[in-house]
Amino acid sequence: MDMVVKPTQETAYELLHRGAIALSDISSNGVRVDTEYCERAFTELTGEIEDLEDELHALPEMKEWRRVKGRKLDLGTNDQVAELLYDRMGLDPARKTGLAQKRAVDADSLMQLDVEWIPRLIRWRRLGKARDTYLSSILREAVDGYLHPLFKLHTVPTFRSSCSNPNFQNMPIRNPEIGRIIRSAIIPRPGRQILELDYSGAEVRVAACYHKDPGMIRYILDPSKDMHRDSAGDCYVLPPELVDKHIRFSGKNDFVFPEFYGSYWANVAQSLWTSSAKLEIRDGENMRDHLARQRVRVQIPRPRGDRTSWEWGTVHLDGPEPFSWHIRMVEKKFWGERFPVYARWKEDWWDGYLKRGYIDMKTGFRCSSVMGRNDCINYPVQGAAFHCLLQSAIDLNDWLLYNKLDTVIIGQIHDSLVLDVVPAELDDVLEAAVRTMGPELREKWPWIIVPMEVEADLAPVDRSWHEKKEIKLAA
DNA sequence: TACTTCGGCGCC
DNA sequence: AAAGGGCGCCGAAGTA
To answer: Is residue A43's beta carbon less than 7 angstroms from any atom in nucleic acid strand C?
Structure first.
């Protein structure tokens, strides 16, 4: 493939070189792991996986399969799972896969089928993922009790980093059970503790440096405002005070970020609707029931010939269709009222690329390959947001070395740094981190027009990464 | 045996 | 007018 991005400015060239050195220090420092724990967890998981397998194979559908085919259904062979569900059981697939247009059997599609044993199949896959991807790779890659993940700067079109052997950037955390199993294996050096420093809302803030939308900047500057909470309230027809952390999580990951990355109402409504099945509001009422009680003004499609016209009407949100019309209205408000300048910037930015044939990142890289509309808008944000973290990694690493601290950086996850900290050095490290990642970065890069805020999570001395908890930072 | 592709799934 | 950005690793299945 053609070179997509080039460092066109001296500073960008410098950033790549110094970044590569800092990342190689980080690789070389290494991540301590508890391999004995991994062995135990591996065995335990295997027991649970085999029990689930036995349970599933005892189901009538599976026994019938065995009778007809002469052998057990292989749970890991998606073609067989699809044949069972969509041919033999006559269910309708929720969607088709990519080029081959096979009937999809991913967890999201399966959950829409309302088959009693599907959650057990999904759990079987999830435990298998934990064992065969994460525990296996830790055991395989550990050398004398340490991992040395390889951080690369030359593989990604946006000039983000990538990581392999093992990939330290996708260790489970969202599923609490799996997060605990895997992150319990990541431990500090004896007598030390694991510290994680995150930029909060890095991509949102860097995007604001491009589009300068006043509504977005108000959200960023005013700590009492929260765009994810407000958007979740719009999607689920709730006042902000009834948006709890689960509802907010769905608003953020099923609506706000997909909209930023270029998705649109029909697709977004689908995942919101799926999430709504599991959400509860204040009194324990199911979100679906709450939505069904709502009457909202929406535009309803009226097919006329080969075109669709939209007419105003009032509907209950009692099914995926009326809900998608409602989300279409929420989207109009999102781009038209909340963030109109951002919306305008996207159009102008895309026009600029079509005219010139390239776009320039704030950090001095030029993207000049063939890009689609979404690529064109997302690449400069994704790249520059990571470059903030990369510059911070360089500066903090230099500071630790120059001041001869024993604390080391052991990993980097796009907008966060993971450190193995000597407790006596903790306060100094925190102070240096807040300074270099915040005001000093802005001094270097005046294009950053909003504060870059850092959050810190700390695990107790001698405890694993899983036990990290947020700590307060002096402002 | 070695390699590639695909679907699936973990993270930001 | 089009319609979710970026990664790496797994197992299964196909190909050389």
So the answer is: no
Summarize pLDDT for A155-206 with one digit per residue, the tens: 999 999 999 999 999 999 999 999 999 999 999 999 999 999 999 999 999 9
Whether A23 and A166 share a structural domain:
yes
- Owner of token pair 């307060």: A472
Per-residue pLDDT tens over the stretch A361-413 = 999 999 888 899 999 999 999 999 999 999 999 999 999 999 999 999 999 99
Residues A13, A85, single domain; the answer is no
Residue A2 has pLDDT above 80, yes or no: no
Distance in angstroms, CA of A76 to C1' of C12?
Answer: 8
Domain total of chain A: 3
Q: Are residues A90 and A162 in the same domain?
A: no
**A256-280 per-position pLDDT tens digit:** 999 999 999 999 999 899 899 989 9
According to DSSP, the residues that pair with A419 across neighbouring strands are: A195, A409
Return all residues near A231 (Cβ < 8 A) that are at least 6 apart: A251, A252, A255, A256, A330, A334, A338
The full DSSP string for A251-319 is IIIIIIHHHHHT--HHHHHHHHHHHHTT-B-TTS-BHHHHHHH-EEEEEEEEEETTEEEEEEEEEE--S
Domain-embedded: residue A221: yes
pTM of the model: 0.94
Q: Are A322 and A466 in a shared domain?
A: no
Q: Within 10 Å of residue A299's Cβ, how many Cβ atoms?
A: 15
Task: Specify if A366 maps to a domain.
Answer: no
Task: Using the structure, give the distance in angstroms from the CA atom of A81 to the C1' atom of B12, rounded to a whole number.
Answer: 31
Domain that holds residue A75: 37-139
Residue with token string 């420093």: A197
Query: Is A63 a member of any domain?
Result: yes
Q: Which nucleotides of B are covered by protein (CB under 7 A)?
A: 6-12
pLDDT of residue A220: 96
- Domain identity same for A237 and A127: no
Q: Are residues A235 and A334 in the same domain?
A: yes
Last residue of a domain, one of A308, A338, A368: A338
Chain A 402-461, CB < 7 Å to strand B: 413-416
Report the protein residue whose CA lies nearest the C1' of nucleotide B12.
A414
Same-domain status, A162 and A56: no
Which residue has its C-alpha nearest to nucleotide B11's C1'? A170
